[in-house]
Design a protein that fits this description.
The protein has helices spanning about 15-25, 25-35, 50-55, 60-95, 95-110, 115-135, 155-165, 170-190, 195-220, 230-240. With about 250 residues, the protein is an all-alpha fold. It has a single domain, classed as Urease accessory protein UreF. Helix 2 packs parallel to helix 8 (about 170-190), helix 4 packs antiparallel against helix 5 and helix 4 packs across helix 7. The longest helix is centred in the N-terminal third of the chain and has 33 residues, at about 60-95. The radius of gyration is 20 Å and the shape is globular. The protein starts with 15 loop residues before the first helix and ends in a 10-residue tail after the last helix.
Length: about 250
């Protein structure tokens, strides 16, 4: 007969060892949780211009989708989102509210369309609501009474969680970029359309490139931060009035 493992004490409470182990969650598990598609923040609602690019034929197949996603990763994520996320992570860790607000406002200002600003604010607010359920909250961005002045970006909320959980900055950047790339690939699989195997090939190819982008992003100085993805901005702007859409605008 197999040995049964006791998971409760005589009064029904978890044994002390289980409580202690559960209190120290490894960084990897924290990061997997933050990157999980099951996290209810609604990232799957947005295509970041990819839906328009597919509709007008800019993206037609697997190589085209990979080129589009890789181009945005290089021209926007690696030169804007990631270096700003690094600074937000540091600002949260130092409890530097002024720096948090400055970089949060900077990131929103860099979104060139209403659609991209809507997405960023939606993801940020949704993630902060989830974090509040875990006991992570800040008066800087109140969950109960959000408004335009307290709107936060996804990177701001993500950096807040990583700082509170003492996650390594490079690992935080890698996880943020991976979650973005996975959502873009899933959007391409639906829109082009592509098969699941094509999606996995794209993720495998992107994996070989994303790590280097994170390291390079951490070496950027403030004056190097910016974007060079004009075509994505055009696609996002035109998607706002696209007649038929699967993704939110």
């Amino acid at each position: 007969m197999p040995t049964r493992i006791r998971t409760r004490t005589a009064d029904g409470a978890p044994p002390p060892v289980a409580v202690a182990a559960g209190a120290e969650v490894p960084q990897l598990l924290r990061l997997l949780h933050l990157a999980s598609p099951a996290l209810p923040i609604g990232a799957f609602h947005f295509s970041q211009g990819l839906e328009y690019a597919v509709d007008v034929g800019w993206v037609r197949d697997e190589p085209g989708a990979l080129e589009w996603i890789d181009g945005i990763a290089h021209g926007s994520l690696a030169t804007l989102d990631l270096p700003v996320l690094q600074r937000l992570h540091l600002a949260w860790a130092r409890e530097d509210d002024a720096a948090v607000l400055r970089w949060n406002a900077f990131l929103i200002a860099c979104r060139e369309t209403d659609e991209l600003r809507l997405e960023d604010r939606h993801l940020g607010a949704a993630l902060m609501r989830v974090l509040a359920e875990f006991g992570l909250a800040t008066p800087l961005f109140p969950v109960t009474a959000p408004n335009i002045r307290t709107a936060l970006t996804h990177a701001t909320a993500f950096g807040f969680a990583c700082a509170r959980w003492q996650i390594d900055p490079l690992a935080a950047l890698q996880t943020y970029l991976w979650a973005w790339a996975e959502n873009q690939v899933l959007a391409a699989v639906k829109l082009v359309p592509l098969g699941q195997s094509a999606g996995q090939r794209m993720l495998h190819s992107l994996n070989a490139r994303l790590g280097g982008l994170c390291v390079a992003a951490m070496g950027l100085i403030d004056s190097d931060i910016g974007i060079s993805t004009a075509l994505q901005s055009v696609a996002s702007g035109r998607h706002e009035t696209q007649y038929t859409r699967l993704f939110r605008s």
